[in-house]
Amino acid sequence: MSYSDFTIDNLKEKFQLEFIEDQPLFSKIPDYTVPSELLVFLGKFLSLALAIDTEKARSELIIAPMLAELKLNLKEISLFSGIEFNVDKALGLNGRCDFIISKSKEQYSLNAPVLVMVEAKNDNIKSGIPQCGSEMVAAQRFNAEKKNDIETIYGCVSTGTNWKFLKLTTAHFYIDTMEYYIQSPDKIMAILASIAQGKV
User: Fold this and answer.
1) Is the pTM of this model over 0.90?
2) Residue 164 half-sphere exposure, CB side, CA atoms within 13 Å?
């Protein structure tokens, strides 16, 4: 078993998670000015990503540039893409993760604390929730093993055009009532920056 094999039911059963689905996670979104270079890039390549319409194209042409811009703007974080994150194979907490953001400046190795797991999907947000959730549980355990716990782990499932945020605090697993859309990249980037800076 690996991250991609999880369902919502066995995520609940294995880790005794309480799912909370009736709360907006970011009722107050701070202002964020998206760099003009990113807006130009998205303006050029968004339609191409949608025309190709694969998970890989959406990941490379929409999600990765936004996360890379976040990393460039916030020097205190590191960003990883497509790396193995094997925390506990016996529990199925192993496999390759699309994107990981850590609250560490080191870019050549993943260090705790892990802050955010981002899972790319082609067109189905709901199907990515248990996979991202299991990665968040793994991040929680990874941080604890490294003796660098943080109270909350965030996650996001994104098709590139739609972004759904998740939150894990102890055994409470929150699914945001809102979805955010690429037409408002400032809102998406503001949420990501707030998480990275510990302002939520």
Assistant:
1) yes
2) 21
Distance from C-alpha of 46 to C-alpha of 65, rounded to nearest angstrom: 11
**183 φ, ψ to 5°?**
-65, -15
- Rounded to whole angstroms, the Cα distance separating 102 from 191 reads 15
**What are the residue boundaries of the structural domains of the chain, listed by start?**
3-196
User: What's the CA gap between 57 and 46, in Å, rounded?
Assistant: 10
Angstrom distance (rounded) from CA 129 to CA 119: 8
Q: What is the CA radius of gyration of the chain?
A: 16
Residue 29 above 90 pLDDT? no
Region of 159 (left: φ > 0; alpha: ψ -120 to 50; beta: rest) is alpha
Predicted pLDDT of residue 194: 96
DSSP character string of 127-167:
HHHHHHHHHHHHHHHHHHHTT---SEEEEEEE-SSEEEEEE
Tokens, residue 40: 């130009």
> What integer pLDDT is reported at residue 200 of this predicted model?
86
Question: b/e per residue, 128-141, with b = 16+ CB within 10 A?
Answer: bbbbbbbbbbbbbb
The alpha helices in 53-99, defined as continuous H runs, are 55-58, 64-73
Q: What's the average model confidence in pLDDT over 143-172? A: 97
